[in-house]
Amino acid sequence: MVSFAAVGAAPEANFAGRGWTSQQWAEARERLAERGLVDAEGRATDRGRAS
Fold first, then answer.
1. pLDDT tens digits along 1-51
2. What pLDDT does 40 receive?
3. Which of 10, 12, 4 lies closest to 49, judged by CA?
4. CA dihedral (11, 13, 18, 19) positive or negative
5. Burial annotation 19-37 (CB, 10 A radius, 16+ → b, else e)
6. How far apart are CA 23 and CA 2, in angstroms?
7. CA–CA separation, 47 vs 24, rounded Å?
8. Using alpha carbons only, what angle is made at residue 24 by residues 23 and 28, rounded to the nearest 5 degrees?
9. pTM, to two decimals
């Protein structure tokens, strides 16, 4: 869901009903950032869009 939002396919707000806490979302975004798939703002990098 985080990577889907990162590429702009849907805004984060669309996933609010999934039950993730803000902390869970932030942790998932951090894991993607550590892999170089999103930047510090949570937007997909070139590598993230290619994945």
1. 898 899 988 888 888 888 989 899 999 999 999 999 999 888 999 999 998
2. 87
3. 4
4. positive
5. ebeeeebeebbeebbeeeb
6. 12
7. 23
8. 115
9. 0.82
Burial of residue 10 (number of CB atoms within 10 Å: 0-12, 13-18, 19+): exposed
> Degrees (nearest 5) of the Cα angle 20, 26, 16?
30
- What is the Cα–Cα distance from 4 to 12, expressed in whole angstroms? 9
Separation CA 21–CA 48 (nearest Å): 23
Helices (H), the chain: 2-6, 22-34, 46-50
Q: Identity (one letter) of the amino acid at 14?
A: N
